[in-house]
Amino acid sequence: MHWNTEQILWALVLAAHLVLLIVLLGRDRVSRFPWFSAATALSTVHLIADHLLHGKLTSLAFYWQTYTAVLLETILGLLVLIELVRHVFSNRKAPLVLNSKGWLGWTLVTVGVALGAVWLWGPWPAWKALSAEPKQLPLLLVVLTAMKGQLFLSIVTVEIALLLRIFGKRFGSGWRSHDQQIALGLSTYALGFVAVQATTDIIKRNLHLTSRAQYEHIVRLFTNLDNGRFALWLLVLLWWIVWLWRNEPGDATAAGAAIEAPVLAGPPSQAAQIPGSSSLDNPESGN
Asked: What is the distance, to the nearest Å, from the Cα of residue 214 to the centroid of all Cα atoms in its chain?
């Protein structure tokens, strides 16, 4: 069986997803990052579904399946960002905590900038064109919402990653923290997604095909751009696997203290008296 570049990338990305899920479960990261774990699981299912159902469903059914999954991934992506921001800016053990006015102000700024960018990005189809075939209108609305939602999520991700990088250390979240590493991976892929989207949009707006050879060249170009985006996603997944396998600096110190402590005889409840054991029993204490 001969595999092309797209199939090889798909297999590698799927394998990386599965390894990342194993790391999240095996290193007990799910309790701390439930939305990130859910988003990873949904992305894995989406990869498998697209591969298995491609060519086996009608075009309309396949579009419904694909873009509904994209829309769900966008919603989970927003919840992941909220999860990371809450970890960093609402850490009760940090020197600073973002108050309600700060939350409201930064939310309005980031969401407003992202919405403005999506609105100006275009193109937006006319309602007359969308409603030309009423039976297909629900699918067209789902496709449009999913595509614009992906763009909105990418822009918001870059904004939030910058805020975490600039202010995270003041709120007790250093560069080596899991929150920062997840945000770095998300923003890296988001920048790649925006770059590919911008490139394809520019090409489409200035495209004037005059021959079959030009058409095939453009198709290959778009395929290579999409492969590059997929390869970037693979690198991000590998980055997360490495960093989420490792303990954060505070967790490593607590684990070392627990290992070096003397073993006490007695009922299991006395284990809570061992120095450092509280941080092991409660993963949230490392936030």
From this structure: 35
Of 261, 279, 281, 259, which is closest to residue 269 (Cα–Cα)?
Answer: 281
Residue 150 within any structural domain of the chain: yes
Question: What gap in Å lies between CA 185 and CA 193, rounded to an integer?
Answer: 12
φ and ψ of 130, to 5 deg: -65, -40
Whether 24 maps to a domain, the answer reads: yes
First-residue to last-residue Cα distance in the chain: 48
CB 287 within 8 A of CB 87: yes
Residue 235 structural domain: 5-251
Q: Note the maximum CA span of the chain.
A: 84
| pLDDT given for residue 255 in this prediction | 42
> Which sign, positive or negative, has the C-alpha torsion 47, 49, 52, 53?
negative
The number of distinct structural domains making up the chain is 1
Is residue 221's pLDDT more than 80?
yes
Residue 141 resides in a domain: yes
Q: Which residue has the tokens 């003041």?
A: 170
CA distance 210 to 100: 58
pLDDT over 50 (residue 263): no
pLDDT above 90: percentage of residues in the chain: 54
Assess if residue 277 is contained within a domain: no
Q: How far apart are CA 157 and CA 12, in angstroms?
A: 24
Segment 97-149, tens digit of pLDDT: 777 777 888 889 999 999 999 999 877 888 888 888 888 889 999 999 999 99
For residue 1, give both structure tokens: 């069986």
Residue where the block lists tokens 């403005």: 116
pLDDT at 1: 54
